Amino acid sequence: PFHFNNWKFNVLPPSWLTDKYCGGVFILDKMHEKGVPRSKLLPLFTPGGVDSELFKPSMTISEKANLREKLGIPSENLVIAWLGRIESNMEVRNTLKLVKELKERGLDKLTFLIIGDGEWRSTLLRLAEESKILSDVVYVGYIPQKMIPQYLEIVDIMPLLDKDPMGGSLIREAMACSTTVLSVDGESGEQRHLIENNVTGSLVGPQNYVSDAADVCLSLFAKPERMIALGVAARKFAVNEMNFHKISRKLEKEIKLLLF
After folding, report:
1. 8 or 82: whose pLDDT is higher?
2. Average pLDDT of the residues in 31-41
3. Dist CA 159 CA 179 (whole Å)
4. Is 68 helix (H, G, I), strand (E, B) or coil?
5. Which of 139, 142, 111, 106 is nearest to 124 (CA)?
6. pLDDT tens figures, 155-183
7. How far apart, in Å, do the first and last CA atoms of the chain sit?
């Protein structure tokens, strides 16, 4: 048996295989510090997956332009988005701070696309108004899952910003749709396993992540071909490394090695 955070286990419980937080590299490192051999832990770490058949680029340039026009987004604008629940504990708060920072730095050709809903919606929109960026917000609310890939395709940069972001299904789904992603390389190293900096996306440090993320956005806005290249590489990584079928086969193989 081993102890971790006052828990005692005779065997590793199944939840460690399925819970994205307990299965994260940070938790596995902490278990190793408590005496669990690396050989027993490494096979259990599997980066989060994505349905790369559902989340994939499929629209023509004309179709993307039409969707932007339908939403009232000027063709020349940089589109930064949030996708997911709108709650006070979600990173959407920091996405708003990023948009505010970009506006304060003089980027007027900017749209903050919000996809999702939640109890914090009215507060978020109030904060956007107080930050003088409400006119730059396009709020679409909840949309069916099958429509999400289309909206991801008109996003230029999908950020996930926090001192140490965990999980990140929106990052994986955006990568699968060839959308440029931006996150923080925090203590856990969680995002490092999804994003290779300057190859499949961009990572900033945890100290001044909003300001540093704004630097990245401005740099990419000035070099749209760079955004396209990052998106293409992200899609390739999603298909080759994060595809649900490949991950499940890998995990099945590793579990068999552990059990037999």
Report:
1. 82
2. 68
3. 10
4. helix
5. 139
6. 999 999 999 998 778 999 999 999 999 99
7. 20
What DSSP assignment string belongs to 83-143?
A: ES---TTSTHHHHHHHHHHHHHTT--SEEEEEE---TTHHHHHHHHHHTT-GGGEEEEE--
Q: Which two tokens stand for residue 222?
A: 């000035």
Is 80 exceeded by the pLDDT of residue 251? Answer: no
Which single residue is written with the structure tokens 């789904």? 173
- Looking at residue 244, its amino acid is F
Residue 71 Cα to chain centre, angstroms? 23
Helices (H), strands (E): how many in the chain? 11, 8
The mean predicted confidence, pLDDT, of the chain is: 86
Three-state secondary-structure class, residue 160: strand
Task: Report the alpha-carbon angle 23-201-120, nearest 5.
Answer: 65
The residue whose two tokens read 């629940």 is 85
- pLDDT above 80: residue 3: no
Assess whether pLDDT exceeds 70 at residue 189: yes
CA nearest to 182, candidates 144, 143, 145, 221: 221
- Closest by CA position to 227, among listed 169, 178, 171: 178
